[in-house]
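#dry-run=false #mode=assembly
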Amino acid sequence: MRSKLSNELDTLIKEGVISSQTATDIRQYYAAKNENSPNLLYTIFGIFGAILIGAGIILMIAHNWDAFSKVTKIIWALSPLVLAQLLVGYTILKEKSMAWKESASVLLFFAVGTAISLISQIYHLPEQLDSYLLTWGLLCLPLVYLTKSRAVALLTLLTGTYYTIVIGWKLGESKTPWMYLIFIGAILPYYINLVRTYIASNTTTIFNWAIPISCIIGLSCFIKKADELGFLMYITLFAVFYGIGRLQIFAQSNTLRNGFLLLGSFGTIVVLLILTFWEVWKDIGNGHQLGSQEFFIALFLVIIALILSVQRLANSKLKLNATTLIQYSFLLIWMVFFIPLGYIFATVIINLLLLAIGITIIKSGIAKMHFRILNYGLLITSVLIISRFFDTTMSFELRGAVFVVIGLSFFVSNYLMYKRQLKISKK
Amino acid sequence: MKTIHILIIFIILALVQLYVPYRMIKDHEDILKYGTLYQFKTKPIDPNDPFRGKYITLSYEMDSFNSNDTTYYNNNKVYIHLTKDDAGFAQIKGVSHQEPTEPIDYVEAFIDYNDNGYIRFELPFNRYYMEETKALAAEQLYQQVNRQDSIEKVYAMVYVKEGKAVLSDVIIAGESIKDYVTK
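#status=ok
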């Protein structure tokens, strides 16, 4: 890459496009940039090497050689841990490169897991996956700040999420995985720092997706007895995501890199779509359990969602567009949930809201000449119309006709916008 | 933060990371050293239960009790008070919701189900880890021996101390399953 740039610069000087001084400035700029950024390739190979070595050690030792005495087995279980600790200590002391720190930290992460699991095996302990994952994750969490390892941050987030699933998705389990909050709470300051420092990096993008996905999975594990409040919790969580995704710091990022925004938008639409069915509102009923943990979690989320909404209002004027409707739809859901106006009213109002979101997204897609936005709006509107088939007893002919009309509307609207785009580009 | 500070915090973390396995080893060694040895008669396990890889799954004859108490719910923890029969095998002396305060031997167990007073529980020491290459043969052997009319010959040796238990060996015809399987 570097030599290609150098060759290009030489050609540009020869052709008289740039001066030799400009070429020197460009070279110096890239040299300085290269010095500040860690060598990505070394880091990636280092991490993968450490993961493979770590996994290899686990497999080899898990083989469980009966020929070894208990003491030998214990030494085998603990030696990778001590070696990895010495390696991490060395990288900190000698202030080694990020590639070194990442690799050593990943190795230590696996060594901790290996040590605990092997000691459990030596003493024939029963499977207690939740406490195993919790201990493993908590013992490695401080590494995220000590070595600033991004791979360990991601691995501990995965461990924490897995722990939550083990407890939360177990049939007949009444426990709530509260310790998940420690994982997410500890990773968040690290993530905020990452966003502030390296907003455009690929690692930040991975976290932009990993954190909201982990929260979506995690939240399901906190819904126990008051499950009717689940919709309220999720719509508010998605409003928080959308609000974060709309923060000024993400304004320059590519939309696909903004997991919070996309998951917030898509999640809101999905929850609203479910709430357009009257049977769902009938099930939800009116007697909400206000003293439940579900209610307090929803309350905590709504405070964050409101702060983000107020912040947005302070920065820009409120316009009636798709963004506003998606970000503030949680307010309407909260009102419908707690004002007893009957499930028919709730159903009608959510249908109207989703229709309005669909239409405003289509409008925005046309105005921006953006195919992806246009089709997203068309998709929402179409799914909403198709969903209403389940509520009515329409004849097959009529249903077929509506499908054809929806299909045609996709073609026609895309074609019309394509033509308009051509016309503008010719001008 | 200065490098030396980071290093000091890391050393503390490293010590905590080492303390956790140390504590596990110490607690279990204490049970093996100071606990009381009980022999738990095993019984055949569900043959449809898939082979688990590097351990065999054990099932015990002592797995239920009768009670009129309706507050024994599924997944609840119970304390099984232990005694020994004439041959030295573990027997149920009593059951309680709370941890016994008197100096008796007991183990923690979890209730599987409560069927109108017939309460089935699961003892936690139901895994015996073995060398990968021996585990399948050991599991097959375990089932075969248990199916024959020789139940007395198969038992687990479990050390018990203050509600905690450590499975130390599985004995078939007076021999450790690890040695028996190689015959």
